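Page header: ASSEMBLY MODEL / two components / 565 residues total.
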Amino acid sequence: MAEKKGLIKEFSKGIIAENPVLRLVLGTCPTLATTTSVESAVGMGLAASAVLVCSNVAISALRKVIPDKVRIPAYIVIIASFVTIVQMLVKAFMPALDEQLGVYLPLIVVNCIILGRAEAFASKNPVLASALDGLGMGVGFTVALFLMSSVREILGAGTFYGISVPFLAENPMLIFILPPGGFFVFGVLMAAVNRLAEKKGKPRAELRGCEACPMAHSCALNKKEESKEEVSKK
Amino acid sequence: MAKKLTVSASPHVRSNETTTGIMLDVIIALVPALVMSVVYFGLRALLLTAVTVCSAVLAEYVSRKVMKRSGTLGDLSAVVTGIILAFNLPSTLPFWMAAIGSVVAIVVVKQMFGGIGQNFVNPAMTARIILMVSFPTAMAQWVAPFTNSWDAVTTATPMATLASVQGGDVSAVASELPSLAEMLLGRHGGSMGEVCSIALICGGIYLILRKVISPVIPLTFIGTVAVCMLVAGGGNLEFVAYQLLGGGLMLGAFFMATDYATSPINTKGKIVFGIGCGLITSVIRIFGALPEGVSFSIILMNILVPHIENMTRPKPFGAVKEKKEKKEAKA
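Prediction written out in full:
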């Protein structure tokens, strides 16, 4: 029973408590770039989630085979193969989405959420837990992108998933489609999720030492004593 | 004896200046330009100002309540922000857009960063830029003064005309430009409050005489623009005069660049700040795609203020320069 609860937690933590975009602040580049419309944001979220789950499973299964010294190149090779598969599938079945996402689809290879989860989680945990972790993180990523893109598309273009919204469609606030508006929505959402997570008893993601970091339990630094350099950085 | 000796912590000498008093002075200084904007653009200018002021005050009240902070309506800073924002808008702007501008200025720029004195950029300037980027067509509906503003004719601002001038040759577009006297009095298209330069200069001089603002920033700002335009115009003084009186330069230099929270404290820093504003304004006016650059220059320099303060830190009395080896050892 306890194990089952643990597994559920591996899944659910990615949605709010350790949301990859809004709490861990990973994958900011695709987040800001693809959230100008709901369609491309959801496409991006789903594509990245698919790669994330597959690469987490593969890396977790191979974690005892991959030598420690060359783990990053090995992870990248695994991630890149899954990205290639996803990219080919999208090209074949959803050419419109492929055009919208453009360079950001192949760039999933270097998405820090995927490499981050491989390094921080999948390389240390069994296959099932890693799959659930990947799924949770993927859902968190997709939900965050969906929320951000909804706000940006409704206010900035006056449409939602291509359907025009009355009044706003005639007077869109263009700034929400532009980068400054993206950063603004990003910040506001981050604040909201921080508050939600705080209510659930997690400390705020502020610079209060390693314990407060949402990644504390899987971070290598946390296990050692904090070096002086780390302290002076803060 | 004990009653005659008051023992207290410093400061021991206090001035009677209050935030409310300073803001009241600013409002008084803004009145001439407000009157002129109503004269030129009709009742709608007054209504638009009322909308920005009311929405700014309301936004301040609500955001302080929501954030559970003490009310700060009494310091009148929201009223000043509202008036200055209205000055930066064309008189034809829909009221709800103006209200959005007020909310951006007060809630996003000011209250989210901690309220009065904590904002890192000028609230009204940022609101203007956000409106300009968001509603580019509505924010460029300049009308000529003395036309009925309900069915007004849009007109080009002198800045847009000047942007097409090659090498400072004003005579080429003389027919499209108002005369210099009209420029000074404000009989040309533009934002509500920025057209009447003479009213703004009077307000600025009042503020300097009341010691509310120091003359350093306005003088260096306007001076730098004058020098740059003299060079760009090939020594054509008429071109320089048009550049100084047109656009938002007077409003920006006297009322917005001098905002206490977003400008340096030392005179040395103020000089750097003013020159920076002037340079960026000139560069945007001469080379940029936009005809006017005062707002962007002030915002950019606002962001640099912490670094300017660091660079121009005053030397304490009697301090000796730290030796280089010592510094390296520390690092």
